[in-house]
Amino acid sequence: MAAALSIERPSLLDSGHPRSWAAGVVYTLGRVNFLSDDSREPHMTMSELCKKIGVSQSTASNKSREIWNRLDLMQLHPDWCLPSMLEENPLAWIVEVNGLPVDVRMMPREVQEEAYRLGLIPYVP
Question: Which is nearest to 43 in space by CA: 78, 69, 82?
């Protein structure tokens, strides 16, 4: 995520403290992957996360908001979702076929292979 942010121009990372941006990246990844949801593993509150990194929660949250907006993120964003969560992530498997969204896992193998070849899905199920 830091690499993706560093190639954007102007880069968000060009200003501010590196520790604040590092916290913002980790905080953002935690938000995307429901880190603070105690029914999932791994689990940690955002407050605990910020304490371990050594920044205030407001700093990490503000940086996260900037990152979230710049990268146009959402919960379980397929590009930033943990590999262990991809199988249960419906966003990773929806493709548009003739204008309709479909779960490619329900399609024939050839269609799945083509979707993978085109980079539309993370792997052939």
Answer: 82
Tokens found for residue 104: 């490619």
Q: How far is CA 2 from CA 10, 12, 107, in A?
A: 14, 10, 35
Q: Which of 36, 92, 105 is nearest to 64 (CA)?
A: 36
Q: Please provide the distance, in angstroms rounded to a whole number, between the alpha carbons at the two ends of the chain.
A: 26
Distance CA 122, CA 86 (A): 8
Predicted TM-score (pTM) of the model is 0.80
Task: Kindly report, residue by residue over 95-125, the tens digit of the pLDDT.
Answer: 988 899 999 999 999 999 999 999 999 999 8
Specify the pLDDT at position 117. 95
In the numeric block, which tokens belong to residue 108? 């024939």
- Low-confidence spans in the chain with pLDDT less than 70: none
